[in-house]
Structure prediction request, 425 residues.
Amino acid sequence: MAKDKDIFIEGENIENLFSDDLHPFLKWGMTWLFVVGIALFTLTYFMRWPEVVKASAVLTSSESPKAMIPKIQGKINGLFFANGQEVSQGDLLITIGNTADQTEVSQLLTLIDLVDTLYQYRVEEVADIPLDYFQLSNLGELQQSYEQFSRSFSELKFALSDEYLQSKLSLIYQRASSLRKMNVNLRLQRNTMYTDYENAVARYEKENLLYEKGSITGYELKDYEGVMLNKRLSFQNTKNAIIQNEGQQQDLLEQKIQLTQSIEQQKNNFVQAFKTLKSTCGQWQANYEIRSPIDGLVSVPSGTEVDAVVSPQAPAMYILPIGADAIVQIRLSQNNLQAIDTGKEVRIRLTAYPYEDFGVLEGSILRIADIPTEGEYEAIVKLNKGLNTSFDKKIDFINGLSGEAEVILDDERLMIRLFRKLLKS
Prediction:
């Protein structure tokens, strides 16, 4: 009886198992599991599970960016271009803290360019510059050189002015003209005096013969001798006057030469003062200004901002040459090199641009170095869409941005990859 009772209970349990009162999950569980399994299996056919090799990555450009390295350490007090902006050669990028007024420095540089242009023709042309227009008194370290230049300019301008030069030359020319006329008269007078002297000598010699014959007395001969001596003295005085006149003319010539030399000295002093000012300004610009050496695009590293401290130990900015393309340098281990070749797809995640928000940069390997550096091979990745990410977001070029690269070796379907692993096992 007990056995029959057990059989009855088991039969009742089996009947309950297939009754309509069961929970749907229990009633159709196997069916649902089968359907889900088939769906997952089908999904593995459409899903791709690439095999990747990871490597470190650095964003750079196809042409070496120009590093803008400060000459001195100091605070940035002027940042004139933002990241990604285009600049021309000579554009002012950064000013480093100093005591000079930047507006006055700009005016001084304009003055130097103007002087430089006119100086190429004649120094005299420079004297026409209205230096009083440039009221420069807050030039900091440049002030002393500018003051010396200003003094030399004023002295040169006065030396070349009609008030000084023409008045001096006019006096010299007038005096020289008078002396030349006087010299002509003296020479005529000398010739007359010489004739008179010769006549007096001849008369004295004639009278001397008469004295020797006793025709005239000694007193009478003395009178003729006195006339002869007076004529000789007058002739000699005229000769001395001519010599003195010519000496005075020579003195005037020397004065003219000295005046010319003085003006030339003023010119030389001005040129030297200008060269000193120009050199000082060049050194000042090298220390306190950073200007673009080429046409290009600005790349501002993190930390470069107004009031930030810059030093010669690190670039304050980069200039990417116009026409250069952004590329990525990756470093590959020797262990994975045999599986990697040019053309392989690469995905780059930049640390500064989280891929969850910005996506990844996509590219392909352009070339791989033949010689390793510190045990790794450098590879260049060409970006397919430039700096546009997979989320179609454009990122700013900042030279040296680091990140992680994934080199896609085989982009197989998940199903094939699973079957291969099963077969290998």
